[in-house]
Write a sequence for this structure.
């Protein structure tokens, strides 16, 4: 019996050694396979091999794992990547502590265009960024006017965009790191003395100041509301020494219409943008702005703050590929009246007149439109939007249907 | 030990009994399983699913369009069905008129009030036969007594508020109380049957109050467009329920414009941009949607107003198709 036991021990020992050897050799063979695979790739893509010398390399690239991201045979995506870039990247990079799940997103991040800022293989910059600091941001945010003012905010001048902004997502508009009320006071102190004795702590500094630069002192925005320019705060507000100094002198919209009486009539329309309180400030700033008519922001941003579904349509490049140029440029008021209108969809005049205001040729030659025409489907009149969906369409000229096979036969049966 | 399986054949299945190590095992094998599934699908499952989903509940009945006799319709405003006289009334805002149709949707007459009407939008009628027509451009609600041939604006002098009243849609309850949307103060104004201002119901958190309806039990429904929500109040104005949101998901709104309540208490909401009507139960749970973008009858293009009468006929102002689409 003891002899048998010795044999058993020996057998298990040999088995263990053979198992270890086989595992080691198998691992060695795999590593070699990866490298062999990588070399095979580099035979046709030699430029990429040079990237191996870069200090910062993407982890799979560093490990010769081309097939982590690419399918060597076929793919539905450019560069034979395994998925859409955004989805592919996010399959590994999920964001720390919900940092990818905040309310506002950087547009390239939202659209899954990670490669707008990052290199996929290697980079001399940290985080595989395509460029460093301000060079990266200004690559897209190249509004020279914004950054070439007489007075510039120090971080903007130095290109330290991330002092105030987040790069991927944020809980706040404009991707700022903190709420507007808390952001500026991280470095600055808002004193009563410099604000005509009004307690401005806890207010949004950017409603008056430009955080990048301005030709005015103290980075005040370019266009000023008259009472603000004249430091006549009490035209609208209670006196600085009163119990509620930031409160308004009168109720609701009368704060504005006392000086702008004609505006009231703009809102007395069938379709109107009236709201509660001082609803003018839904779109306008009462102090200083860099936009015409003291608008709070770019038109597109103001309008889509409420018209959220339109915002989504503007982003949808597949189903709404063809849009009216004014829609693309966000110039909503070129066709729609911002305060009120007696015409459908807040048009400036009736729909056809609104369109031919610019499309003058269409006023002389076109498919019959207007009062004397009848859409055989609805029995209503034919107008421009019968065939065009100006907010966006997958078809040329923002047509509602494919003009080569669907559009005309909607009404002209039998062709 | 006998391990041969025993086989019993029935009409549509086979019973297989196996004597294994752990005892007897019985296996039923359906021979005609495809037939069974096919049968169930066609005659039971598919109709039942469709019924549950409500897709067969609503069908298009007819459309009311303009013609040479009464001229083309312009921008259409509101709809009201008079249950006593069995008449349908709706406003043609652009052409400054109210049109009347009978229960078979035959044109009866138009009312312009000798030029009194300018841009009428919402319209309701109380049990005394008086019409109320909203004239937002004038900032008025006109009370029209056809019998006395009088047209008088409702007195808003007792109504206070930060902004002057901007009238929107209206509703009348079973006690002839009048409910008016005040867009400039995001509230509902309540007038008694003698047209005296009774009280206001602030619609808290509303960003664009658009429509109001009252059901048979006196519950008040308010629709907020910008935040895509529906608030339900009891007759005393206490908030009972708030539901709805904007978004791309099922039962979420793009741009809700109007709401109505049927006899069963289901809540119907038109969506101007999704070109659909969403239906919710009285707890705010989404049930189903009907119609889609289109120009042919039964389809909708920018629906702007909805009204449901006691016969559960659904009248929709199909604004971009310049017609009233009737469903049931």
């Amino acid at each position: 019996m003891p002899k048998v036991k010795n044999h058993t021990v020996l057998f298990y020992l040999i088995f263990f050694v053979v198992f270890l050897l086989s595992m080691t050799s198998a691992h060695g063979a795999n590593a070699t396979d990866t490298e062999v695979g990588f070399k095979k790739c580099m035979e046709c893509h030699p430029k990429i091999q040079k990237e191996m010398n870069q200090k910062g390399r993407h982890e799979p690239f560093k490990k010769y794992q081309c097939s982590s991201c690419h399918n060597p045979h076929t793919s539905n995506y450019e560069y034979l990547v395994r998925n859409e870039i955004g989805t592919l990247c996010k399959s590994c990079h999920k964001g720390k502590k919900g940092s990818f799940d905040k309310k506002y997103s950087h547009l390239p991040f939202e659209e899954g265009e990670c490669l707008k800022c990052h290199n996929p293989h290697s980079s001399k910059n940290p985080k595989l960024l395509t460029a460093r600091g301000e060079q990266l941001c200004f690559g897209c945010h190249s509004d020279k006017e914004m950054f070439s003012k007489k007075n510039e905010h120090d971080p903007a001048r130095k290109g330290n965009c991330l002092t105030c902004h987040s790069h991927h997502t944020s809980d706040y508009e404009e991707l700022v790191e903190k709420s507007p009320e808390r952001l500026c006071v991280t470095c600055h102190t808002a004193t009563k003395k410099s604000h005509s004795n009004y307690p401005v702590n806890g207010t949004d500094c950017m409603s008056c100041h430009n955080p990048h630069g301005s030709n005015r002192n103290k980075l005040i925005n370019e266009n000023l509301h008259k009472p603000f320019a004249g430091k006549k705060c009490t035209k609208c507000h209670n006196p600085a020494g009163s119990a509620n100094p930031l409160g308004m002198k009168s109720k609701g919209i009368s704060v504005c219409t006392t000086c702008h009486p004609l505006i009231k009539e703009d809102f007395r329309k069938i379709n109107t943008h009236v709201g509660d309180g001082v609803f003018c400030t839904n779109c306008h700033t009462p102090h200083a702005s860099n936009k015409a008519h003291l608008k709070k922001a770019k038109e597109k941003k103001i309008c889509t703050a409420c018209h959220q579904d339109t915002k989504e349509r503007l982003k949808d490049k597949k189903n709404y590929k063809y849009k009216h140029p004014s829609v693309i440029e966000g110039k909503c008021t070129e066709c729609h009246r911002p305060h009120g209108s007696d015409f459908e969809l807040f048009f400036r005049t009736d729909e056809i007149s609104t369109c031919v205001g610019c499309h003058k040729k269409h006023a002389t030659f076109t498919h019959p439109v207007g009062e004397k025409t009848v859409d055989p489907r609805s029995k209503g009149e034919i107008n421009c939007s019968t065939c065009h969906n100006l907010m966006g369409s997958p078809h040329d000229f923002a047509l509602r249907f494919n003009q080569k096979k669907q559009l005309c036969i909607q009404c002209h049966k039998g062709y | 030990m006998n391990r041969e399986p025993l086989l019993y054949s029935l009409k549509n299945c086979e019973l297989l009994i196996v004597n294994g190590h752990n005892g007897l095992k019985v296996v039923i094998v359906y021979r005609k399983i495809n037939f069974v599934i096919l049968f169930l699908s066609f005659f039971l499952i598919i109709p039942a699913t469709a019924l549950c989903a409500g897709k067969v509940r609503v069908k298009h009945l007819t459309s009311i369009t303009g013609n040479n006799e009464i001229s083309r319709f312009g921008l259409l405003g509101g709809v009201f069905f008079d249950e006593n006289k069995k008449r349908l009334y709706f406003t043609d805002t652009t052409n400054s008129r109210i049109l009347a149709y009978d229960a078979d949707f035959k044109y009866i007459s138009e009312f312009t009030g000798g030029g009194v009407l300018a841009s009428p939008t919402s319209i309701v009628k109380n049990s005394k036969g008086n019409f109320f027509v909203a004239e937002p451009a004038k900032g008025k609600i006109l009370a029209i007594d056809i019998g006395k041939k009088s047209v008088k604006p409702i007195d808003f002098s007792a109504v206070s508020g930060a902004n002057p009243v901007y009238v929107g849609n209206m509703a009348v309850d079973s006690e002839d109380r009048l409910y008016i949307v005040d867009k400039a103060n995001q509230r509902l104004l309540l007038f008694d049957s003698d047209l005296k201002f009774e009280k206001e119901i602030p619609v808290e958190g509303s960003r664009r109050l658009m429509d109001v309806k009252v059901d048979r039990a006196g519950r008040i429904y308010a629709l907020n467009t910008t935040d895509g929500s529906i608030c339900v109040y009891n007759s005393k104005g206490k908030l009972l329920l708030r539901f709805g949101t904007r978004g791309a998901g099922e039962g979420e709104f793009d741009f809700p414009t109007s709401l109505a309540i049927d006899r069963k208490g289901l809540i119907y909401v038109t969506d101007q941009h999704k070109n659909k009507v969403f239906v919710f139960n009285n707890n705010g749970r989404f049930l189903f949607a009907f119609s889609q973008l289109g120009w042919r009858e039964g389809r909708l293009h920018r629906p702007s107003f909805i009204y449901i009468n006691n016969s559960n006929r659904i009248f929709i102002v199909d604004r971009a198709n310049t017609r009233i689409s009737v469903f049931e």
User: Anything to note?
Assistant: The longest helix of chain B spans residues 33-53.
